[in-house]
Write a structure and sequence with these properties.
Elements lengths: L9 H10 L10 H11 L5 H15 L1 H12 L10 H9 L3 H19 L7 E3 L2 E3 L6 E5 L8 H14 L3 E6 L9 H10 L4 E3 L2 H10 L9 E3 L4 H10 L4 E2 L7 E6 L5 H12 L6 E6 L2 H11 L1
Parallel strand pairs: 3-4, 3-6, 4-5, 6-7, 8-9
Antiparallel strand pairs: 1-2
Helix pairs in contact: 3-4, 3-9, 3-10, 4-9, 5-8, 6-7, 6-8, 7-8, 9-10, 11-12
Length: 297
């Protein structure tokens, strides 16, 4: 990832904020626009591209998924579902210290969500609400720029705690035509046996409407880039979704005495998600601002 942290005056920050339209009108960088033009053979905006991807996946299923993965990710994935052997090997090949960290995080996340688990009916007589778990949930786990086993933990564990019967993971392919090892390892830790190598809008369409290899789900959860979020917005109503996360944003308000290294790390933690992410440090200390820029570089 390449990014530059600029020092702005208050007036410049206000003007920059006014120009930022967030997810309402996502704009790709030059590389993203070039990729779309190569994939579609013509200039095309992200929303139109997503609608076309969804339409073809609904009509042609796995064939369309494979074609879009090849065009957009540059990888040919003949079969999206990862074998049990690959999943178990990913866990076995993960460093013991990383396995311990994933296990500890999973235990804490599970303990938190167990406090939210409700089984009792609410109401009385013939009018009441009865909690019922969904049958099948699709968890989208981003990839490409980095590995996000944390997303596996934070999306799968609440589903298991709620009593969801079937959980499936979809994640973009690496150069090896499979998901990142840590994503597969986290899935194995949590007992998810169905993991598909597919990302972007084609993954959301496959989860929403089903293909030969991927059965449709009742709800799609998990973050993603602009294409994933646009696709989730497009399929909402035909399938449930968690939210439209949009590009990551963070605002750190800091004063004299704050550690510029920590602030820079906080900014980077969000900027790594997507080129459209936005990170701001607001401070009245010029020395601190300069230190944040220095550590960020």
């Amino acid at each position: 990832m390449s990014a530059v942290l600029r020092m702005l005056s208050v007036a410049e920050l206000v003007e920059s904020t006014r120009r930022r339209d967030g997810f309402n009108a996502p704009e790709l960088d030059g590389a993203g626009n070039a990729l779309l033009e190569r994939a579609f053979g013509r200039p095309i905006d992200p929303e139109t591209a997503v609608r076309e991807i969804i339409r073809t996946v609904r009509a042609r299923g796995d064939i369309a998924v494979r074609e879009w993965t090849s065009r957009l990710d540059g990888v040919d994935v003949a079969e999206t579902r990862i074998s049990e052997h690959v999943l178990s090997s990913a866990w076995a090949d993960t460093k013991p210290s990383t396995r311990a960290a994933l296990s500890a995080a999973a235990d804490r996340i599970r303990a938190f969500h167990e406090h939210q688990h409700e089984t009792a009916n609410r109401g009385s007589n013939s009018a009441y609400l009865r909690p019922e778990p969904l049958h099948r949930v699709g968890c989208y786990v981003p990839g490409g720029r980095a590995a996000y086993p944390s997303t596996v933990l934070m999306s799968v564990i609440p589903a298991w705690v709620a009593g969801v019967e079937s959980v499936v993971i979809a994640s973009p392919p690496a150069e090896s035509a499979t998901v990142h090892q840590l994503v597969a390892a986290a899935a194995t830790l949590l007992g998810v046996g169905e993991v598909h190598v597919v990302g972007g809008a084609q993954a959301i369409a496959a989860l929403a409407y089903g293909t030969g290899a991927i059965a449709r789900v009742d709800k799609i959860v998990g973050p993603g880039n602009a294409f994933v979020t646009l696709a989730k917005r497009a399929v909402f109503g035909d399938v449930g979704i968690d939210q439209l996360a949009g590009p990551s944003e963070i605002l750190v308000i800091a004063s004299d005495g704050a550690d510029p290294a920590f602030i820079a790390a906080d900014l980077v933690s969000q900027l790594e998600h997507d080129p459209l992410a936005w990170a701001v440090c607001l401070t009245d200390d010029a020395w601190l601002a300069g230190g944040v820029v220095e550590h960020f570089a």
